[in-house]
Amino acid sequence: MADPSPSTPLLDLNIVPYQFLSPKLEPKPEPIEIPNPNPSSVLSPNSILSPELHTPLQQISPSSSAAGAGAGEDDLFAEYLRLSQLFLSSYNDKLRTAGATGTSSSASTAVVVSRKSRSRSAEMVRVSALGTQDRAHFRDLLRRTRITFESLRLLVLLEEGRAGGLLAAKRGRSDLKSAALMKNRDLWLNRDKRIVGPIPGVAVGDVYFFRMEICVLGLHGQVQAGIDYVPASRSSTREPVATSIIVSGGYEDDDDKGYELVYTGHGGRAPNMHKHSVDQKLEGGNLGLERSMAYGIEIRVIRGMKSDKSPTGKVYVYDGLYKIVECWLDVGKSGFAVYKYRLLRIEGQDNMGSLVMKLAEELKANPLRVRPRGYLSLDISMGKENSAVSLFNDIDGDRYRDPLLFEYLARPVYPPGLQGKIFGDCGGGCQCVKNCTADCFCAKMSGGEFAYDANGILLRGKPVIYECGPYCRCSASCPNRVSQKGLTNRLEIFRSLETGWGVRSLDLIRAGSFICEFSGLVLTKQQAEALSPNGDGFVFPNRFPERWVEWGDVSDVFPDYVPARVPSLPGLDFAIDVSRARNVACYMSHSSSPNVFLQFVLYDHYNVAFPHLMIFALENIPPLRELSIDYGMAVAEEWVGKLTM
Length: 645
Ligand SMILES: [Zn+2]
Ligand SMILES: [Zn+2]
Ligand SMILES: [Zn+2]
Description:
Elements: E1 13-15, H1 71-97, E2 124-127, H2 132-161, H3 174-184, E3 194-196, E4 207-208, H4 211-217, E5 227-230, E6 241-247, E7 255-256, E8 260-264, H5 284-295, E9 299-306, E10 314-331, E11 337-345, H6 353-365, H7 367-370, E12 375-377, E13 389-392, E14 407-408, H8 441-445, E15 465-466, E16 491-496, E17 500-505, E18 514-517, E19 521-523, H9 525-531, E20 538-539, E21 575-577, E22 581-582, E23 589-590, E24 596-602, E25 612-617, E26 628-629, H10 633-644
Parallel strand pairs: 2-3, 6-9, 13-16, 14-22, 15-24, 23-26
Antiparallel strand pairs: 1-2, 4-10, 5-6, 7-8, 8-11, 9-10, 10-11, 12-13, 16-17, 18-25, 19-21, 20-21, 24-25
Residues 430, 432, 436, 440-442, 468, 472, 474 line the site of one zinc ion.
């Protein structure tokens, strides 16, 4: 991965000339957020006035040395930091002893170093006008941080699943533990400055499955509170200033129309209650919002939405910047005084993520009613894929409809000569009668562990993965059968002015999940050279950069971590001819900052010289966002030109 810390200054940081703050007040927690890990300690309504007690984990670990607005957060993490330390040492031990299987460099000393996590800065800055290069740099940094967060979370889950494990006592909050591990290493982004306005690298419409991830990235720095603000006690002008809010729905006085939003201030509610029981006051975040209105400071708005794609049943969508245009004291539905704020979305931003998600749902249900024109085919695969692949061109569909001309090939076709080598060196699959377990033959072939978690999420990238296949005795529901099952998301080939043909999904795609296979006619090196000496219309698997090493990379937390080198793969010299028959994958655009990556997989044959080219998500990909893959810089232009026109 490229070094994310260039030496030249990239930012034009305009210091916003007011810094503010206030005593810590009770947060406006979300209605269905952060289940109390200690349910017996239900707070009494009196504790509204002693907000420090509101973070559930403080009850577990009441000692806190940190001061200021970060104090509650630090307490929230105290217990998880302790567990994380245990996890760190145990995992480092494992990394060191894993040298035998080639997953670790055994020489270095993996000391559990915990950098002192700094408290959050109150210095406010606005990041203005980033160039293309800077945007890519910050996007890469953000992606790396997200991958670390998710990879750690998967590791924690794996550890929890194993024989009770050392983390068994506090199951279920892998997100908190992952965030704590990263906090311990000072890996949370945007802590040294309070960014007003857009966060570099964060795109409007980005989707997060865990609220902790939003904190880790610095998009909204409060673990529980709905309003994030610089407190008055830490600002030069002694006034708080709000920078972001999380709108979750479910509050009786909120009114969310999308572009216009009436947001209710915090306070006046008993913990975990939606209704107000006392009057709200103009202080803390409430005053912060009022001051932000007075100073014209834009507010980042993140919306919580229900989603069955998320392990928590909920996702968070970054909807962009809003301006507060009005603030008033009102009588809430419960009869108590509430502060209300009218926010309007600032124009000229990318489409609102939460609306795009709703649109994508409508498109799945009734495509022609939502978009009466532009469809060239509702399923270009003609039923060959598990889920329909639509072809859409509302730009120049009268001239460009060429994807219709190719035979749609859902699975690659191998040359007949390969049949004899079908088992390669490997014999014929596993003999597991019941569920495959870690001592299954296929797990051993994959480097001693299964590649996927129970939900089919790839745990980390590898040179090649052995899925169970037709020669295994296990059932079709074996969790080691994932990419062979084909599409699970509704994909669309679409025409755009920027990239020609492109691919997007109508479903939210979770990071680490399988998307589609690169399909065509598989040719040996000799066949390829004979058919097309200059390689026109061919895909060469060996030209894809090894982006799979990024998925699962936790080296920022575990310095001893090295990418998997087993099972090993020989140099690949075959080609895939996509000049006559192809599938949806052929229309993906190139990016050197991609959101999907290539992972080689074997399942229906074991000839390592001819693995399947499977494509997985490198980050959570919102519906209708274009998928992009790294074809390798040298061939990028050639491919965008030849494959997609
Ligand atoms: Zn097995
Ligand atoms: Zn199996
Ligand atoms: Zn098997």
